[in-house]
Design goal:
Elements lengths: L30 H15 L32 E2 L2 H6 L6 H9 L8 E3 L4 H14 L2 E5 L20 E5 L6 E5 L4 E5 L4 H8 L4 E2 L12 H7 L16 E8 L2 E4 L12 H5 L8 E8 L1 E2 L3 E9 L2 H12 L7 E6 H7 L8 E9 L5 H13 L9 E4 L14 H22 L2 E7 L2 E2 H23 L3 E10 L2 E11 L5 H18 L15 H7 L2 H14 L13
Parallel strand pairs: 2-4, 3-4
Antiparallel strand pairs: 1-2, 5-6, 6-10, 7-11, 8-9, 8-10, 12-14, 12-15, 13-14, 16-19, 17-19, 18-19
């Protein structure tokens, strides 16, 4: 099942956020776990077990000195601390973690600002605008596309990373309309902890849930890990409040409107290039009471894909409908010998039991050759003695969930072992899926073989729609120490070219950032590019907001 908000969002004092890897330092893979990974890689690729590289220490970092200093009136909001600057230098993609591990940080922000309210945001933008200093809005720092990196060239006197995480309150709840006004810096667990006493949830759980913010989700049009219906944060947004260098914009709260182009659509997905999202009214859901989950095996990925299409078009709307190919399933969940794909299926409701929906979904799966190795699990959190978040923890569904949440920590261990390990995702209509899956897989497998000599390319579905699907590819290959980033850049370019050629999007939910710019520029219509540039010129005339993202 999708990641669940913890009951207590408070961060234990013993835990420290890693400045050079994913998540908590205390949750990183141990040396023993890393050694086991090395042995497994040796067996898989027929190579000598790689030795783990020792990450650079914080005190040994050679960071460029700050080039600008805030005025005295803003100094209390600003930091030039070594750890703060290093941690805010980039996001947490594979490329980022390789560079952070080696201390290769040529573009640290000069100042990290921590505003505590919207007035501070206005004051900081006024300072930066008057001085020509670039501003990069920063939420939880989980970007995997170069969206928060201070690599903006040399035509600016400096860069400020604007960390919004102190703006983290649920300010107001409208229980009648089932909505809430929430500050944009609220991390996922912090947000959910404030909604829980009201019996409400935002119901948006990306893999980065613990380390990403509402504002970051909105600015990148993030996809949560419910596979159908309300999958994108766009669907949950009722209105936005945005501070731009030219003034503050706030849209009217409405369930829907036909009054011209939507103001919110201008800022959703703007990735900090137009302004700073400071708060939003968000549509909420009642917390679910009934849950059910199952793992369904298929003889092949194609038959599993046909089943997912039937489910997406059935009107059943499962919350989880994730198809894993054989390689992906072996990495993250139990798959019987001879099975070709695994479907992780789940339903939930706050209003009614979901067993009937699960039964019908399993009937559809059987129509496409699906088999059920073990019975589905179900829970009712309203019944005495049952756990509210118990569903989906058993069997293949539970194993997938645990592996899913641990994956970024495992990725960091693989980085230390010199392994090229990264993902890319797309979306396409159902009529194009078979050819896209075939051509993209072939192109990437060819690139991995040429560049790395060996490797593994797997695929899973993250989201399913009545008219299409979002395939998510993973690459695992032995790298050449010191050349891993150039190896990945070549593989990524081959993958991106193949995706566009097959009619897919360059990104379904990872955003554009700096990494996807060359392909995003080709995907979007030229007329729209001109309109977007005109909008940026209007709201950000000095061009200080996240330069290089979306538009030049």
């Amino acid at each position: 099942m999708p990641p669940t908000a913890p009951d207590d969002p408070a961060t234990p004092a013993a835990r420290t956020r890693s400045w050079q890897g994913w998540g908590w330092e205390e949750s990183a893979a141990t040396d023993e776990q890393t050694d086991r990974l090395a042995a497994a890689l040796a067996g898989r690729f027929g190579i000598a077990a790689p030795t783990a590289e020792v990450p650079v220490r914080l005190e040994d970092l050679d960071l460029r000195p700050p080039r600008v200093a805030p005025p005295a009136s803003l100094a209390h909001l600003c930091s030039t601390d070594r750890r703060d600057r290093a941690a805010h230098t980039c996001g947490r993609s594979y490329r980022d973690v390789v560079r952070l591990m080696r201390g290769d940080l040529p573009h640290p922000p000069d100042v990290v600002a921590h505003p505590v309210d919207e007035a501070d945001v206005v004051a900081l933008l006024d300072w930066c605008g008057s001085a020509g200093i670039a501003v990069i809005p920063y939420g939880g720092g989980s970007s995997v596309v170069g969206g928060v990196e201070a690599d903006i060239g040399d035509d600016r006197p400096g860069v400020v990373s604007l960390d919004l995480t102190l703006l983290d309150r649920v300010v107001e709840i409208d229980r009648v309309s089932r909505a809430a006004r929430i500050q944009a810096g609220a991390l996922g667990p912090v947000l959910e902890s404030q909604l829980r006493p009201h019996g409400l949830t935002l119901r948006h759980y990306p893999q980065s849930f613990e380390f990403s913010t509402l504002g970051g989700w909105l600015a990148t049009r993030a996809g949560g890990h419910f596979a159908t219906v309300y999958t994108h944060i766009d669907d949950l947004c009722e209105s936005l409040r945005v501070v731009t260098p030219s003034g503050t914009a706030e849209s009217r709260r409405l369930p829907g409107s036909g009054a011209g182009p939507s103001p919110d659509r201008l800022f959703l997905g703007s990735e900090g290039a137009l302004g700073v999202i400071t708060e939003a009214w968000m549509r909420l859901q009642d917390r679910p009471r009934w849950k059910a989950s199952a793992g369904v095996e298929f003889p092949g990925f194609d038959s599993g894909a046909s089943a997912v299409r039937s489910l997406a078009q059935s009107g059943l709307f499962p919350v989880n409908c994730r198809l894993l190919d054989a390689g992906e399933a072996m990495l993250s969940a139990t798959l019987s010998p001879g099975a070709g794909a695994l479907l992780v299926l789940g339903f939930e409701s706050a209003d009614h039991p979901v067993d009937a929906a699960m039964d019908r979904a399993l009937e559809l799966c059987r129509d496409h050759g699906g088999t059920l190795p073990s019975p589905p699990t179900s829970t009712d959190s309203g019944a005495p003695g049952t756990a509210a978040d118990g569903a989906g923890r058993d069997g293949a569904a539970g194993e997938w969930r645990n592996s899913f949440l641990r994956a970024p920590y495992t990725r960091d261990a693989l980085v230390r072992l010199g392994v090229v390990c990264e993902t890319f995702e797309t979306a396409c209509t159902w009529d194009r899926f078979t050819s896209l899956h075939s051509s993209v897989s072939a192109a990437v497998e060819d690139a991995v073989g040429r560049i790395c000599g060996a490797g593994w390319v797997t695929c899973r579905f993250t989201h399913a729609y009545p008219d299409g699907v979002a395939p998510y590819f993973s690459v695992l290959a032995p790298g050449i120490r010191g050349s891993e980033l150039s190896q990945w850049a070549e593989i990524k370019a081959a993958a991106s070219e193949a995706v566009l050629a097959a009619g897919g999007t360059i990104t379904h939910h990872h955003a554009v950032g700096r990494d996807h710019r060359p392909w995003y520029d080709r995907q979007r219509p030229d007329v729209f590019a001109s309109a977007l540039l005109a909008a940026k010129t209007a709201v950000d005339p000095a061009g200080i907001m996240n330069p290089g993202v979306l538009v030049d």
